[in-house]
Design brief:
By secondary structure, the protein is an alpha/beta fold. The chain has 2 domains: about 180 residues, Periplasmic binding protein-like II (D-Maltodextrin-Binding Protein, domain 2); about 140 residues, Periplasmic binding protein-like II (D-Maltodextrin-Binding Protein, domain 2), CATH 3.40.190. It contains 13 helices and 11 strands. Strands 1, 2, 3, 4, 5, 6, 7, 8, 9, 10 and 11 form an 11-stranded mixed sheet that branches. It is globular, with a radius of gyration of 20 Å. The structure holds pyridoxal-5'-phosphate (PLP). The site of pyridoxal-5'-phosphate has 22 residues, from helix 6 and strand 10.
């Protein structure tokens, strides 16, 4: 029996606090979703089907969702922020934009997911993980394919690399923080300034560059490796690369918004989203991250963290309000201003 097919009553009998709708508002959940649209929709529909709680979902990139929640702080409109990179979730936690909640599901989660909860004072939790890298179009790059971050500076890739803007995109902020941790801050900004010569476009969404590579609009997209694999699995000539110098990774996260209008529905969604069945919805919708529930099946195509030369990403520092704000300001001044 899977949770996926349970009625709301049976779901409640398993120990989940399903909000029984007493008023029109009680059976509604406002979900801010920061993974790709297809997975956001599948999650919303499955939750709605299983609990009867009507989901109003909006999809925005991680940095944009953080900014929206900050802008709405005086009168919060969202209940749960599900998905997106962990750093802006940690920033929201530090700023009190999200609420403390300890889910009974915590004991079923990977260590990195629990650490995310501990770092935030239980205001966020890890729901998936994935390593940063890039993907190239093997029909456009037929010789000497790039294997390292340094290779992306090659003049033969002029105007043929895309990455997102780190203000809107959590993927791109992960890259910025990764470079700072790999190289040192000044060296990282020098690298990004040099890379700028090869960048044709800073996209709004983190995964847009690999969709552009899949169609041949660009040769290389800097993205999470699982986003590159998603294109390969769908038949695009994309090769995912784990950069030779080492790389960072994300702990995709979930938070309940402080003073959410529907707190019971928010907690019901939160517990449900940590179940194996809910986490397996990703793989069925072209998403190949590592799920945080130890009992959820890891998709066969998912790049394994242990196969990648990962840095010891300092989530507490790079997810802090001061550091994220400061690095984005420096990026605007030194890199964004070149665009
Ligand atoms: N989509 C997928 C599949 C992701 O893994 C992530 C990262 O958490 C995102 C989207 C986040 O996108 P963005 O970089 O636009 O914030």
């Amino acid at each position: 029996m899977t949770v996926k097919h349970l009625s709301a009553a049976a779901f409640a009998a398993l120990g989940f606090a399903v909000a029984v709708p007493a008023t029109a508002q009680a059976d509604e959940l406002v979900l801010y979703c920061s993974v790709q649209e297809e997975w956001c929709r599948a999650m919303s529909e499955a939750f709605q089907r299983e609990t009867g709680i009507n989901v109003l979902m909006t999809r925005r990139s991680s940095g944009e969702t953080y900014a929206q929640i900050a802008a709405e702080a005086a009168q919060p409109r969202g209940d749960v922020w599900w998905g997106g990179t962990g750093d802006p979730h940690l920033q929201a936690a530090q700023e009190g934009l999200t609420a403390e909640y300890v889910s009974p599901m915590l004991g079923e989660l990977q260590d990195w997911a629990v650490r995310q909860a501990e770092t935030s004072g239980n205001r966020t939790v890890g729901i998936y993980a994935g390593g940063l890298g890039f993907g190239y179009n093997s029909e456009l790059v037929t010789e000497d394919p790039p294997a390292c971050w340094a290779d992306l500076l090659d003049p033969r890739f002029e105007d043929d690399v895309q990455v997102a803007n780190p203000n809107s995109s959590g993927t791109s902020y992960t890259m910025l923080a990764t470079m700072v941790q790999l190289m040192g801050e000044d060296e990282a900004f020098a690298y990004l300034a040099q890379l700028h010569d090869n960048i044709s476009q800073y996209t709004q969404s983190g995964s847009a560059p690999i969709r552009a590579a899949a169609t041949g609009e660009t040769a290389i997209g800097i993205v999470f490796m699982h986003d590159a694999v998603a294109q390969t699995v769908q038949g695009a000539p994309i090769v995912a690369v784990a950069p030779c110098e080492g790389t960072g990774y994300e702990v995709g996260s979930m938070s309940i918004i402080a003073d959410a209008p529907n707190p019971d529905a928010a907690r019901t969604f939160y517990d449900w989203a940590l179940t194996p069945a809910a986490q397996e919805i990703g793989a069925a919708n072209n998403s190949f991250q590592i799920p945080s529930n130890l009992n959820a099946a890891t998709p066969e195509a998912a790049p394994r963290l242990e196969d990648v030369n990962l840095i010891d990403y300092n989530f507490a520092l790079y997810g802090s309000s001061e550091e994220r704000t400061r690095l984005l300001q420096r990026w605007d001044a030194e890199i964004g201003s070149l665009a």
